[in-house]
Amino acid sequence: MTDAHKAWTIRDLLNVTSSYLKQKDIEAPRLSAEVLLAHLLGVSRVQLYLRFDQPLNEQELSAYRALIRRRLNREPTQYITGSQEFWSLDFEVGPAVLVPRPESELLVEKALLLHREGSVPRINQPRILDLCTGCGALAVALATEIPDALVWASDISEEALAVARRNAVRHHVASRTEFLTGDLFGPVLQRKLSFDFIVSNPPYIRADAFDGLAPEVRMYEPRQALDGGKQGMFYIERIIREAPECLRAGGWVLVEMDSDQTVRALELIEKTGRYEEWKRMKDYSRRYRMVMTRKKGRESELKH
Q1: Apex 278 CA angle, 276 and 281, nearest 5
Q2: Torsion of CA 156, 160, 161, 163, to 10 degrees
Q3: Of 95, 121, 149, 217, whose CB count within 10 A is highest?
Q4: Contact 135, 101 (CB under 8 A)
Q5: pLDDT band at 302 (very low <50, low <70, confident <90, very high)
Q6: Are 32 and 77 in contact (CB under 8 A)?
Q7: 124-134: per-residue pLDDT in tens?
Q8: Which element (helix H / strand E) includes 91?
């Protein structure tokens, strides 16, 4: 990647590395090169540009080569740096959790809108459950935005919950967040808890589509957090069926899923007979990404 006898500046190193990553079919090669170098040097990407003519010593070059080798092995940049931004907050991530995606911010956005409109049973101190929390992105973002909220975050993976706990501490919401270990609603039902919101980004990748995922996802992200069974609907169906047992009347469920799954999800919601409103929402790519529904108990406001 580099000539060991050359004095490399930040500018030269980024240009050569970006080109090399592009030749190796690494997605967003310039961004990867910049993020990894900024991480190594402990500066922001903007600061890299302010230091374009700064030469790097051999120790820094050697460490950077090691990071690039990891990226060439298709390890996600976020796992190499140990962080990912979500909802303008920095989250610790690693192989125990999925890397939070921008499209999941739609769940936070819509939950906040419902709260601000007063469309939840408890306006003061609402109770929120983040089901399949992973790194805790949804739970922490909502706890940050609604300072009086009480939040529960559940996951079947103890390793994932350890990451989520650290993220709650990092963003000063740990005192209002309780972590539960178990399969979907199991630990919630044991404690006889009820909520105003249930938000979830569950596993929803079809099992037969898993081998076609990008190497970064297929090789490094936890399959348990991705594989949604034969049609990708196994967990989505369970959430729709079981959520009313843990919702207050008028409470909301917001679930992320693939665009192709949204129609089936709406059919299941109507079939249960326990919801009074339902709607699917598009993400910023104009693809249907989320289904939201409300437990019976208040006058409908959304069109079916």
Answers
A1: 160
A2: 180
A3: 149
A4: no
A5: very low
A6: yes
A7: 889 999 999 99
A8: strand 89-92
